[in-house]
Amino acid sequence: MDRAMVQKSFEVWLFVAVAASMNGMFRSLFLVPRIGEYTAHVLSVLMLMIVVLLSSSVLVNRLLKDYANSDLFLIGSLWAVLTLSVDLVFEHYVLEIPWRAILSDYNLSSGRIWILVLITEFIGPWFMASNNR
């Protein structure tokens, strides 16, 4: 993976990060009061997964020229690690949310499906590229 590919991938991830922030505000301000916290969580996660897949499609079909499957998984890994890092650092150190509360959002057995966004980020570039080969 060359430097230009990393830069384009990072730029697309920044777009997704801004979209995720706007999605979070939309969930808190509009969805939660109208449909409740859990339903808002699920809908918000699904909306963000769609944004990730559409962004992945733009990256692999419009911005990147030559890439291998290994490049696409490296990009997905980069996106997932960046998202996880920003999520954990921002929530704990800026919003001062306790670690236990932050980690509860990753508990599938309690119905929290946020981890599906990370999985979508990881496989998104490869998945969207595999649809066009």
How do you describe this structure in short?
This protein is mainly alpha-helical and 133 residues long. It contains 5 helices and no strands. The chain has one domain.
Total helix count? 5
What's the β-strand tally?
0
Report the structural category.
Answer: mainly alpha
Question: What fraction, in percent, of the residue positions are helical?
Answer: over 70%
**Strand portion, in percent?**
under 5%
Radius of gyration, Cα only, in angstroms?
Answer: 15 Å
Helix and strand arrangement:
Layout: H1 3-35, H2 37-63, H3 69-94, H4 99-104, H5 115-130
Helix pairs in contact: 1-2, 1-3, 2-5, 3-5
How would you describe what is shown here?
The protein has helices at residues 3-35, 37-63, 69-94, 99-104, 115-130. Helix content is 81%, strand content 0%. The chain has one domain. 21% of the residues are buried. The protein has 5 helices and no strands. The chain is mainly alpha-helical and 133 residues long. Helix 1 packs across helix 3 (69-94) and helix 2 packs parallel to helix 5.
Defining traits:
133 residues; mainly alpha; 5 helices; 81% helix
